[in-house]
């Protein structure tokens, strides 16, 4: 198989996974040509097994191997997991824009750990329940079966629209993104990006989550998010738009 094939998650709102968006943003930013092969949730494991990909995680409920996207095939060589793909892109395409400017690799790793624990996971109750509505019926069932809160609550009960639970969950989310705003505030230079005028991979980790959020919350809720923290997330979105194209 020649060329670059990017295995991404299908939805009825186009590319939506926060993890595959990291890869898509990185590919687009580096100007690397690729073709997307879309997979629906129930197709991911059987298809990835059939092409020889390895699992990246364990199913949180059963402990079984979990096959995930993004996966990218570079002329038939498979690279799994968004972080490994980013590192591979940097090694294989050293010319042009860089994802990891010299000296930033370790700090970007620390940033991603902070982001997932302190920002993304606390946002889970408002974003997780929106997934079934933007995928086909079979995928929706798959997602409902796999995703449960730590207390065992089914997805639909995490934070139903209009509920007090949801209002409280949004307060927690705003506070979590406030911690990230305090990090972005320390950026040098005129640009909105973490390192100043150009994006780095860590910005794509954040943008991937914002794009996902925009697709799974209501339009009204999304509008509020873009106004949080002096409009920072709306500005970051605008700066990232040039890299958001999907084929
Ligand atoms: N460690 C992975 C996580 C990727 C991940 O969780 N992908 C989800 C899509 S959002 C997935 O493929 N899930 C497969 C499933 O739930 O069966 C990465 O960063 O690449």
UniProtKB/TrEMBL annotation:
Domain of life: Eukaryota
Record InterPro entries: Glutathione_S-Trfase_N, GST_UstS-like_C, Thioredoxin-like_sf
Protein name per the record: GST N-terminal domain-containing protein
Pfam families the UniProt entry points to: GST_C_7 (PF22041), GST_N_2 (PF13409)
Residues annotated as domain GST N-terminal: 7-97
Naturally occurring in which organism (per UniProt): Auricularia subglabra (strain TFB-10046 / SS5)
Leader peptide range in chain numbering: none
